[in-house]
Amino acid sequence: MTDYRVPLDELPDPLPIEPLPRPFDITIRPPGSKSITNRAYILAALARGESRITRPLRSEDTDGLLDALCTLGAEAAWVPNDEDPGAEDVLIKGVAGRFPRGGSLNLGDGGTPTRFMIAAACLAAEPVIVDGSTRMRERPVAEGVDMLRQLGATIEYIEDEGRLPVRIVPSENFKGGDLTIGETASSQFISAVMLIAPFTARGVDFHIAGHATSVTYIVLSTVALSQCGLNTTLHRDVNQELSSLRIDPQLVSAFQFQVEADASSAAYWFAAPATITGSRVTIESLLLDSVQPDMGVPAVLTGQAGFHDEAGTDHYSVWSEEPLRAFNADGAAFPDGTLALAAIAALADATSTITGLQTLRVKETDRLAALANELCKVGCAVETTDDSITITPPRQAATTRPPIVIETYNDHRMAMSFAILGLARPGISIANPGCVAKSYPTFWQDFARLYEST
Fold first, then answer.
1. How far apart are CA 328 and CA 330, in angstroms?
2. What is the CA radius of gyration of the chain?
3. pLDDT in tens, 370-426
4. Distance CA 320, CA 164 (A)
5. In this structure, what DSSP letter does residue 406 have?
């Protein structure tokens, strides 16, 4: 039996996934939300005084963002959690709205940290260079740069137009104001400006022309601002589309912020009961009414795929009582979580389709292409468009399929999604299993608990 509890750098590569022999019933507390942690870090670093962030996510992305904020002048110290000495909180001493230093920042593969730091650097007293990995240099940043330029920022492309690296130069003209936005490649650009808007002289009036991408993440940003005591005004048109958003200049004092469990990390566990009928997963510190976008995953499973659920005061459970039903889902509101759904679609009783996935083309990898490649290895028939994937499960029984190595393309969500599929489909191994460090460094340790439960 493979030992999944060893340190990430000691895991076999590729990592064999052992199919489970019987149903399981486990309770898991995933790490803190990556999306919420990133937002809390930006706000705390810019606030006045020392804020406490409780149970933030420790990962490559979030630690990289915190290091970048400290490079520009914020201060951070890790302390034991008051209720659980095994967990950590972070104390962040903010810069009262203006970073005193500049510097060179490299956020690696982190899409959200990179886009957030380009915006935050507009509030620095000295020039800042923001760069990333080879893949991050391929991903779009021009729309975010254009938004910041509308508000008076001075940002230069150092090499290729529209791509990293960029240089942000202090500008007296960066005061906020009106911002007109069309359909964007990522809502991260809008969220980045939202997080710094309270620290500008005029605040920001967002005018949305057309359909805003991934509105759920914009809503998540408004909730994060509200939890820090900040006011936002959001308007929708007659079709309930987001039409405008106002964030006033506001004094941001130190705050305490509790980070809830990560719904994106929970998505794999929500999907897991599809692998063995009669299995159950309970997620602690995550509620049914959470505003995290990837709560759309259990909604699909319980609404279409035959799962059942139960919500408690501090937990949320899902379980299966019959084989997985095929489903048709619009994943525009929760694109990250759709990878878990796509993987288990290989186990459904018929063809499943997931739409609304245009943003997956510009993630850590082209996720639609990656999903198609690896699901074909499993024996599925797969069709993709610019924004959808259709998956027909293999006709042959899983026990007749040959061993395969799932390429992860250095994408954490590919590794975790296909690990879940490997619980039912024999012969799956995961290449580069350590890539989960980007968002869920303890994933394999939690994965090991599935075998202890059976």
1. 7
2. 22
3. 999 999 999 999 999 999 999 999 986 555 578 999 999 999 999 999 999 999 999
4. 45
5. E
| Cis peptide preceding 323, ω within 30 of 0 | no
Which two three-digit tokens encode residue 104?
């060179």
Q: Which amino acid is at 448?
A: A
What is the rounded distance in angstroms from the CA atom of residue 295 to the CA atom of residue 332? 13
User: Tokens 């027909």 — which residue?
Assistant: 392
A 10 A CB-CB count for 404 gives 18
Strand 381-384 to 389-392 pairing = antiparallel
- Residue 336 annotated among the catalytic residues of the structure: yes
Q: How many residues are listed for the chain in this entry?
A: 454
Tokens describing residue 51: 């804020």
Report pLDDT for 276: 96
User: Residue 328 in contact with residue 353, Cβ under 8 Å?
Assistant: yes
User: How far is 451 from 166, CA to CA, in rounded Å?
Assistant: 47
The full set of domains in the chain, from first to last, is 8-32+263-453 (3.65.10.10), 34-245 (3.65.10.10)
* Number of alpha helices (DSSP H) and beta strands (DSSP E) in the chain: 13, 23
In 3D space, the residue among 40, 63, 60, 67 whose CA is nearest the CA of residue 52 turns out to be: 40
Q: What is the mean pLDDT of the chain?
A: 94
Under DSSP, is residue 206 helix (H, G, I), strand (E, B) or coil?
A: strand
pTM for this entry: 0.92
For residue 402, give the amino acid letter: P
In 248-298, at which residue ranges do the beta strands (DSSP E only) sit?
256-258, 280-284
The whole-angstrom separation of Cα 287 and Cα 283 is 9
Per DSSP, 230 falls in state -
Residue 272 burial (CB count, 10 A): 27
Give the burial string for 239-249 (b: 16+ CB within 10 Å, else e).
Answer: eeebbebebbb
Q: What is the pLDDT of residue 139?
A: 87
What residues contact residue 48 under an 8 Å CB cut-off, 6+ apart? Answer: 94, 96, 97, 251, 252, 253, 254
Active-site entry in 336, 349, 386, 411: 336
Q: Estimate to the nearest angstrom the gap between the alpha carbon of 444 and the chain centroid.
A: 18
**Structure token digits, residue 90:** 């972070």
Spatial contact of 56 and 33, defined as CB atoms under 8 Å apart: no
Q: What is the pLDDT of residues 316-337, one digit of tens each?
A: 999 999 999 999 999 999 999 9
Number of neighbours of residue 453 by Cβ within 10 angstroms: 16
| pLDDT tens figures, 39-82 | 999 999 999 999 999 999 999 999 999 999 999 999 999 999 98
**Phi/psi of residue 403, each to 5°?**
-60, 145
